[in-house]
Inverse folding.
């Protein structure tokens, strides 16, 4: 453990210079929050035993969210349903950047959350219709194998060669070690998740994107 230089001899000026150098180099270390600590006033900053800094506000200690618990996921290839009116999961490419969130190495449809928290998800999917008949697609989240109630997005297309991008943002509580899947289904196989190719003047488009950010523990 580093300690300040002790005073030695009559040369106080030299000791003062050494003390000043020491103080400029050491890092401020947060005190650990004890069970007896109370948020009696706002602005008390402590290090919680769960591994996060906390600050007192309105009589309680609130976690300060660190720069982790995020991911950017994409699917860069077309995905076609294998059957109508059948739920199936979207498969993802490896995350471009992420911390505390990763794909299950055995199943690229499962997004695994390392830590508990409330996460904001921003989802977007590009769809293509290849016939003029009316057809519908459904998209919803499934957490730990259970569909989230009241979360489905439905879209209906009827024009041939019609592209549409559908998006939605929502927040979900996740427990440590839980996983999320983006599910979808269609009632006609002429509607699918499409990844348009690059053109002479524009780059290619991802079929699906999903941005995840942890809002709080």
């Amino acid at each position: 453990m580093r300690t300040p230089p002790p005073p030695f001899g009559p040369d106080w000026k030299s000791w003062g210079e050494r003390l000043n150098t020491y103080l400029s180099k050491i890092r401020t270390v947060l005190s650990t929050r004890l069970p007896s600590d109370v948020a009696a006033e706002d602005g008390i900053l402590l290090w919680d035993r769960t591994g996060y800094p906390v600050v007192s506000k309105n009589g309680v200690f609130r976690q300060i969210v660190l720069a982790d618990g995020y991911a950017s996921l994409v699917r860069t290839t077309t995905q076609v349903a294998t059957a109508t009116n059948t739920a199936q999961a979207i498969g993802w490419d490896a995350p471009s950047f992420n911390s505390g969130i990763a794909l299950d190495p055995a199943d690229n449809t499962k997004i695994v959350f390392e830590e508990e928290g409330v996460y904001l998800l921003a989802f977007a999917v590009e769809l293509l219709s290849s016939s003029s008949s009316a057809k519908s697609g459904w998209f919803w989240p499934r957490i730990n194998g259970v569909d989230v109630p009241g979360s489905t997005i439905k879209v209906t297309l009827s024009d041939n060669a019609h592209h549409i991008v559908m998006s939605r943002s929502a927040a979900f509580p996740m427990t440590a070690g839980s996983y999320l899947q983006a599910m979808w289904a269609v009632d006609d196989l002429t509607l699918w998740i499409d990844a348009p190719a690059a053109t002479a003047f524009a780059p290619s488009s991802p079929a699906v994107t999903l941005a995840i950010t942890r809002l709080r523990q």
Q: What stands out?
A: Helices lie at 12-25. The chain has a mean pLDDT of 90.
